[in-house]
Amino acid sequence: MNILETKGLYHDYSGLKVLFDVNLQVEEGERHAIIGPNGAGKTTLFNAITGTLCPSQGKVFFKGKDVTGAKPYQLTRMGMGRSFQLTSTFNRLATFQNVRLAILSQKGIRFNLFRKVDKMMDITQETLEILKRINLDEEMMIPASLLSYGKHRSLEISMALATNPDLILLDEPTAGMSRDETHTAVEMIKRLTKGKTVVIVEHDMDVIFSLADRITVLHYGQILATGTQDEIRQNQAVKDAYLGEAKV
Amino acid sequence: MKKVLKWIFWIALGVVLILIPKFCGIYYTNFFVGFAIMAVFSQALNLELGYTRLLNFGPAMFFGMGGYGTALALQHIPGMPLLGALISGVFLAALLALILCPLIVRVSGVAFAMLHVAFSMLLYMLALKLRAITGGEDGIAGFPTPPFSIPGVISIDMKNPLNFYYFAIVVLGICMWLMWFITQTPFGQVMVGIRDNPKRIDYLGFRVPESKGLVYILGGAFAGAAGAVFALFQNLISVDSITIVNSFTPILMTMVGGIGTFFGPILGAAFFQVLEEVARHYTDRIELVMGLMLIIVVLFAPMGFMGLYRDIKAKLAATSSDIKI
């Protein structure tokens, strides 16, 4: 069954056509990568799926329901989580508070004005567990803005995961990381997303070939090919457009 | 140990508050009530401005609404109890916030600020022109002050300034405690989350406009409570309370004390009240002195007194750890 599907998705930014008849199918449980050169429309596709913008034409289906134009908070409550290409955390709050907000939302504690949050032991416990799993337990009292780049990125990804989504969309999770940090991050993503559906946008070919089950190649807003790693490697159109260039 | 110290602090504070009228005389007791009203008013604004970054540039609207609500209730409804009048003031201020918030939560930044200036001007003109209801420039004065009474148990005469002092301090103290509690709840976390990154709050599954609306109504209600006590305290409410000047006073107090910290607005309110009192002895140009102090604070402590305190503490901690190395 397809957990996520787009049908004939078009988008243009006041005349500039960015997405052109995109039909993406993501099966439940797979790790699906979207690759493509700069300006191919990967982030726009992400934004159209996650509700940041409403596509000009076409439909988005999540878990079989039409969610075109739904708000981000509605999608999150349905079980969709996303991380951002540019790290987007609560910079003045401690790492602990960042993760705790995600947990609070996941538990449906949104307008509670009657209990102190520090006294909610189950929330604290769960937050500490997540911090431990992502190796941020030592930095938990530090404001997010003061974390090292790699740790900050881990926090970004883990906040998307902490809402316990069924479908996770990661927008360039390893952007700007060093080789070591990338390796750690890939291991972390593998570990934390076990049994979940992941859609990932990435430039780093090593990351993609070590993570993805299936790959979709996006080129000037159109899908060039979709298939397994081998199929993509053999595909002539992809070689011409993307992979070939990278080898030269 | 820490808990014991905390209790000692609260008991000491309670004793000081009880003894203020005994040692300070009626003038300074009233001075203290004035400070407490401004502290609650500034704190209500701080919930919006500091914690959630809602640029409310017209908090005097809600302050005034609280005052007019209380005054009108006492003037027109015979046998209105004191707490009933207070609650009508708070209710009217919250109602104004409720009416404004569907429009206001949809805008942010400069538009949000400008809409508030516009609405408070509108309300000012209404209060000025609707003479039949608001008394125009003269305001509403001389409304009866009922005793604070629980039927069959107790009845305290509120015309006695000493009794009124205790009443005002208890009401304002409860308001202050409630606001502090709000910042400690899960919703308080959502508030600071919206300040830091509303987009992410949305993506975590919280409703941003509705949350902003709730903060807005709460802030309005507490500003209304300050206004209601103010009206009872002065036995007068006039258009002066809705002016732009009265909107900017709590903004200045919050900025100078330290925006986004809980003690900042209290400190700021104390600072400006004392400054005004001291300056009054030497000059009639009180605004000049206050403006000068504001410039000094903005130049040398842009995050206010609390920011200054934090910086000094961080510096001291840094030097002491240097010695250890």
| Helix percentage of chain A | 25-40%
CATH architecture of chain A: 3-Layer(aba) Sandwich
Distance between the termini of chain B: 30 Å
Total number of helices of chain A: 9
Order of helices and strands of chain A: EEEEHEEHEHHHEHEHEEHH
User: How much beta of chain A, percentage-wise?
Assistant: 25-35%
The end-to-end span of chain A amounts to: 39 Å
How do the strands of the widest beta sheet of chain B line up side by side?
1-4
Count of β-strands of chain B: 4
| Rg of chain A computed from alpha carbons, rounded to a whole number of angstroms | 19 Å
Helix/strand structural class of chain A = alpha/beta
With helices defined by DSSP (H or I, 4 residues minimum), what is the helix count of chain B?
13
Helical coverage of chain B, percent range: over 70%
The pLDDT mean of chain B sits at 91
Chain oligomer state? heterodimer
Q: Compute the gyration radius of chain B: what is it?
A: 21 Å
| Unreliable spans of chain A | none
How many beta strands in the DSSP annotation of chain A?
A: 11
